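B., you asked whether I could sanity-check this one before it goes into the benchmark set. Here's the sequence:
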Amino acid sequence: MPMGSAPSYIRLPCQNRDMVCTLKAAVLNTKPALRWRFTIILIASYAHWTGATAQNTCEKPVYLTFDTGHMGMAPLVAEVLNRQKVKATFFAANERTKTGDGSLGNYWAPWWKARAAEGHEFAAYTYDRAVWRGDLKGVEPKFRMQPTAGALEGREFTWDAKKYCEQVAYSAERLQDFTGKKALPLFRSPGGKTSPRLLAVARECGYEHVGWSPAGSLGDDLPSEKVSNEALLKKALQGIKSGDILQAHLGTWTRKDPWAPAVLEPLIVGLKEKGFCFATLRQHPAYKTWIVANGK
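And here's what the prediction gave me:
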């Protein structure tokens, strides 16, 4: 090349967004002495780009959610989700735990904070895991509610709309205290038990209810004497469909043979092999608009 002349640039007929062709042109226009190093860098970059693109364009999403429970499986669940690069949505109440002062107690604050740093989402489950038992007649909405956690566990009360909203909101506030991240304007009624009037009250105070899909109840709260982990895994892999909301717990008192150590990771791997991907409820098409409009 004559002194002072500009180097010629090799152009390839790349189509728009053709990443392979674009990378090839970049390699060809690198000095020969550096070309092999640049090629290695580009291969790694391309692998990252294709992985991210595949995840963003997945056409078969499922939405993995966890309710709190006794938290005995919480460390394992976090480990599996991190290893499998899966993001989940956690619904939290201050439930009795095997270790510590309740699932929304200070003992578990570091655990919640770490999950927020990993990119998971959070939502309310009512602070005392209060189960709806029925509506009361009258102009003003009132409900028969039974807390299943806290000092009033097992007793039945009459709650008005204000009291119910306070229970949902306090759960969300505790999550924000621990995570530094606002909870989604969503909630789950314990046991999935609701009424149209209860759901209307929750919406008025800014919370949309999230249940789970028919095949999404993963059965980790069923007695292991009646249904094995192997049977639960097989049923889930056969029944789950694109768009399903899946529900499990961070520990249940009703199952002697724990579900998570035997089923969670094989389930995630099996669903991935079938072409499914995982997203949080923030990405769910049924809740996207609500979340944007009611984000707190």
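One thing to flag: The chain has two domains: 19-56, 61-129+161-294. Otherwise nothing jumped out at me.
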